[in-house]
Amino acid sequence: MRTHRGSLDGAGLRVAIVAARFNEVVVERLVSGALDCLRRHGVADDDIELAWVPGSFEIPVVARRLAESGRVDVIVALGAVVRGQTAHFDYVAGQAAGVGRVAEATGVPVAFGVLTTETFKQAVDRAGGKLGNKGWEAALTAIETARLIAGV
Ligand code: INI
User: Fold this and answer.
1) Which residue of 2, 26, 65, 97 has the smallest Cβ count within 10 Å?
2) Does residue 37 sit within a domain?
3) 24-72, pLDDT tens digit by residue?
4) What's the pTM?
5) Residue 85 belongs to a domain with what CATH number?
6) Does any ligand 1 atom lie closer than 6 A to the CB of residue 146?
7) Measured from the CB, is residue 39 less than 6 Å from ligand 1?
8) What is the extent of the structural domain holding 94?
9) 4 contacts 148 by C-beta, under 8 angstroms
10) If you take atom 10 of ligand 1, which residue's CA is the nearest one?
């Protein structure tokens, strides 16, 4: 039997973060968490690109451009979609989740660190609050998946 696992060694990995400015107070914390995780696992600052898009709806198209650029091994998608703020919640959240199709179409993995919550407080709790930092977790998933893909 051959078992494949992705290591958590980020040295040499080229990572893009696509972050949505909407609910920026929350997303800035997700970005900080993701950067902290990448650096702690050996990703060099010169190997990180950060693209700010207006809202989570715009994440997939920019992620796709980056994935097709050949410049990055893996992408971290970060945003915060809060139901209370929009009747369009399902459309925005559903569109953001389209990063999964970007990953499948391009072969470049995309970690999904877009919060989809009922309230703003639930988002804050998951962005460095009492429930951890989903940006940090998404970055770790990105490293592991990129390493796994390189080895299978
Ligand atoms: N974008 C978000 O990232 N989070 C939200 O909660 C949100 N709300 O509430 O509307 C949101 N809307 C903007 C959307 O992502 C697009 O930028 C906009 O529709 C223009 O395409």
Assistant:
1) 2
2) yes
3) 999 999 999 999 999 999 999 999 999 999 999 999 999 999 999 999 9
4) 0.97
5) 3.40.50.960
6) no
7) no
8) 32-146
9) yes
10) 86
